[in-house]
Design goal:
The protein has 406 residues and is of the alpha/beta class. Helices cover 51% and strands 13% of the residues. The strands form three sheets. Strands 1-2-12-7-10-6-3-4-5 form a nine-stranded mixed β-sheet, with helices on both faces. Strand 1 and strand 2 form a beta hairpin. The longest helix is centred in the last third of the chain and has 28 residues. 45% of the residues are buried.
Length: 406
């Protein structure tokens, strides 16, 4: 069953009754004959030692329609990469690991940087960008899914529901965003989305006026989810942010490049829990503190490209407007939690809002102070225009790492 959420900008597949995963997989196996499917897994080595990833791999072993799995491995030395090769070896799909810290990929990375085409900093965005390049180089998949590696409640039905709208040859969707309720262990989670992004979008509508871009972002039930699927040609043309603004940046690129009729979102799980980031009030380089800064900068940059001008006074007004809207939402969330028998710490919620409000102003100052910042990694179309053989060389490097001596 589908509906149009909020303002009807994108199609919303809201599953009121769920089909058995086996039925979905049977159809996806048929779809795969016309639209071969792959999966990208951006991972830190530490996630191989955590409680979630081994269970995710156990579920992926059972998935019959995937043609390839591409693992982006960050922060791994040689022994850890060899451990990762063994860790993922039980997957029956064609599986390749990008050892992003290995000498072969680092050499390509340094050459890209010498041409002004590399990612300026390590992070999830950089990891996903390199995985996208490998998928394009392999040519094995025309439909590609992506999800995080820290999902504690993972089952393969999540992936099947995520892939279905883009994989179905009868549909014309180029991109699908996953969403789910952020409830776990009797608590209401998803603080950055609930307490920052939602009231910030509404505050921007008040301060900047109604804009199609803000309506578009506000139509996503969970814009910060790390689960999405797309046609492989999407990977060639979009610019991916290197920082925590990855999800907002990708949605922004899609709004620029594609008709809204080609974009959709789907309800992929009844419950979802993952590794929770600390708020980290004292350190702006990690946790929700860093995340909120990067998200705010991503939004400001996009609005600037659409002709919105900002001043220090505008950011102070935005902070005040956001703060009032966020406090009002805390009241609503508190009532929602009470009605559903969930717990919600209003003191912690208000502390988070105070941090986010402060960061809106700080992100504004950073935006004004550094107008030449290059926040996006160049698209693979641009990279191939400058270095036509780069994807073939990347493919060869990954094959040597995975099959040869390292």
């Amino acid at each position: 069953m589908s509906d149009f959420h909020q303002n009807g900008v994108i199609t919303d597949f809201h599953n009121l009754t769920r089909r058995p995963v086996e039925a979905l997989e049977q159809e996806l196996c048929q779809f795969a004959k016309r639209r071969p499917m792959g999966l990208i897994l951006p991972s830190l080595f530490s996630e191989l030692e955590g409680p979630a990833l081994s269970a995710i791999v156990d579920e992926l072993v059972k998935v019959p329609y995937l043609n390839e799995i591409v693992v982006g491995l960050d922060r791994a030395d040689r022994d850890q990469f060899l451990y990762a090769r063994e860790f993922f070896s039980r997957l029956p799909q064609h599986t390749r690991i990008l050892w992003n810290d290995g000498p072969r990929l680092r050499a390509i990375d340094q050459e890209l940087e010498s041409h002004g085409l590399g990612a300026l900093e390590p992070g999830k965005g950089r990891n996903v960008w390199y995985c996208a390049g490998y998928v394009l180089s392999s040519g094995r998949s025309t439909t590609v899914g992506l999800h995080d590696c820290d999902i504690l409640t993972y089952d393969r039905g999540l992936l099947a529901r995520l892939m279905y709208p883009v994989a179905n040859p009868r549909f014309n969707y180029s991109f699908c965003k996953g969403y789910y309720p952020r409830i776990a262990e009797g608590k209401l989670n998803g603080r950055v989305s609930r307490l920052m992004v939602t009231p910030l979008l509404r505050a921007l509508k008040t301060v900047c006026g109604p804009l199609p871009y803000l309506d578009y972002l506000d139509s996503f039930r969970y814009p910060l989810s790390g689960e999405f699927a797309m046609r492989s040609d999407v990977l060639e043309g979009i610019r991916i942010p290197a920082d925590w603004g990855l999800e907002i940046g990708v949605l922004s690129e899609l709004q620029r490049n594609y008709s809204h009729r080609q974009l959709c979102q789907v309800d992929i799980a009844d419950g979802y829990d993952h590794k929770h980031q600390p708020v980290s009030e004292e350190d702006a380089t990690i946790g929700l503190n860093r995340m909120s800064l990067d998200i705010a900068k991503a939004l400001y940059r996009k609005l600037a490209t659409q002709g919105v001008s900002f001043s220090s006074e505008d950011f102070r007004t935005l902070k005040a407007t956001y703060y009032r809207l966020a406090l009002d939402l805390i009241e609503a969330y508190d009532h929602d939690a009470t009605m559903n028998g969930l717990s919600l710490d209003r003191h912690c919620e208000e502390q988070a809002v105070e941090l986010f409000a402060s960061n809106l102003l700080e992100a504004g100052n950073l935006f004004l102070d550094n107008p030449r910042e290059r926040p996006f990694i160049p698209s693979w179309n641009r990279v191939q225009a400058a270095m036509p053989d780069v994807l073939a060389r990347m493919h060869e490097a990954v094959e040597l790492d995975n099959q040869g001596r390292v």
